[in-house]
Design goal:
single chain; alpha/beta; 7 strands; globular
Length: 357
């Protein structure tokens, strides 16, 4: 009998070990990926090249800076371009829909850049997406690596083409809600020029949120001081459309980055990618930002910090029309998240609804 009493706990322990290993990732707090010194130096080198190239471009008397005074229709000044920055850790599931979006436009009006997590095997995209990958590094949700990836995309786009005037950050779960021409004409409508003859950036900047204080102290109490006091801490959508001027501000920054790259001690409150960009631009140029995003997201039934994911039965013309609606004076241009298997439904109404402006 004594042997059985010893044997039962031993068997229970042996059975429990594999279960613990299986469940550990979902039970234990996720360990944040650190940003190594070599990666940091690599990015800094890229940023310096982009900044230097932009300065050289500004000194050329024969060219106008694309983020300043536009002369649309002029034969002496090139038309500004939009840089589409795709940030992904999976296949570009909506590649066919985006092909329709881009192929109906002038190829000289846009550039595409893709940052794909190198630890994930991704099917090489075709068409306009072919060979558009930049040198990427590993990314992780709720960590500074997403900030790094975005800054990396901005720097590559700034360095690659001086005519890139707007920079749109896009998720792999994101779809367009309008045609390219509609989006382009919306951004570069001269009526949107400020008194300084500058176009605005479309980035969500919110001053209030139920969990804002917890997120502010995610790296430890008052760790963000003195560079970022709580009254200057902002929150907003990770996805934005910003000007060249503001893109340069982002890659030139080192003061705020020193704080935001610190690892979080409260992982459940750590979403640096939703705070860094709105906080930085709110501090540097609040009047140059609309404080609204152009990407529609449904948070009504979010799970684990993820927004609602639209499934095929939900996809309809009525949904597209509804997603376009905004509290601002303009329409939403993009929407997320959509499940990969909703592509068929989206393609069926692409020409008749989505791209029919």
């Amino acid at each position: 009998m004594f042997k059985y009493y010893i044997l039962i706990p031993s068997l229970t322990l042996l059975i429990s070990i594999p279960i613990i290993f299986y469940l550990a990732p979902s039970i234990l707090p996720q360990r944040q990926i650190p940003i190594s010194l070599p990666d940091e130096l690599d990015d800094l080198s890229l940023f310096h090249k982009a900044i230097a190239a932009d300065s050289t471009f500004l000194k050329k008397p024969s060219r106008k800076h694309p983020s300043n005074k536009f002369r649309l229709g002029s034969t002496t000044v090139r038309r500004p371009k939009i840089a589409f920055l795709f940030l992904t850790n999976s296949d570009l599931h909506f590649e066919p829909l985006w092909h329709k979006f881009f192929n109906a436009s002038d190829p000289h009006l846009y550039n595409i850049y893709i940052h794909a997590d190198p630890t994930v095997k991704i099917t090489p995209p075709m068409g306009v997406f072919a060979d558009r990958f930049i040198h990427a590094k590993r990314t992780q949700r709720s960590s500074p690596t997403l900030i790094s990836a975005t800054r990396r995309l901005l720097a590559h786009a700034l360095l690659d083409d001086p005519d890139n005037a707007y920079f749109a950050l896009i998720s792999q779960h994101c779809i367009p809600l309008h045609s390219f021409n509609y989006f382009y004409n919306f951004l570069l409508d001269t009526q949107k020029l400020s008194r300084k003859m500058e176009f605005p950036s479309y980035i969500e900047i919110l001053t209030e949120s139920p969990a804002l204080l917890d997120r502010y102290n995610a790296r430890g109490e008052n760790v963000m001081e003195p560079e970022v006091s709580f009254d200057k801490f902002r929150v907003g959508s990770q996805f934005f459309v910003i000007t060249r001027k503001h893109s340069l501000m982002v890659i030139k920054d080192s003061k705020l980055w020193r704080k935001f790259k610190k690892p979080c001690v409260k992982i459940q409150s750590c979403y640096p990618e939703e705070h860094y960009f709105p906080t930085l631009l709110s501090m540097e140029d609040p009047n140059g930002c609309t404080r609204h995003t152009l990407t529609r997201v449904n948070w009504t039934d979010s799970v684990g910090g993820h927004p609602h994911t639209y499934q095929p039965p939900e996809v309809s013309p009525e949904l597209i029309y509804k997603l376009r609606e905004s509290n601002s004076t303009y329409s939403y241009m993009f929407a997320r998240k959509f499940s990969p298997d909703s592509l068929k439904s989206l393609m069926e109404m692409a020409d008749s609804v989505i791209f029919k402006d």
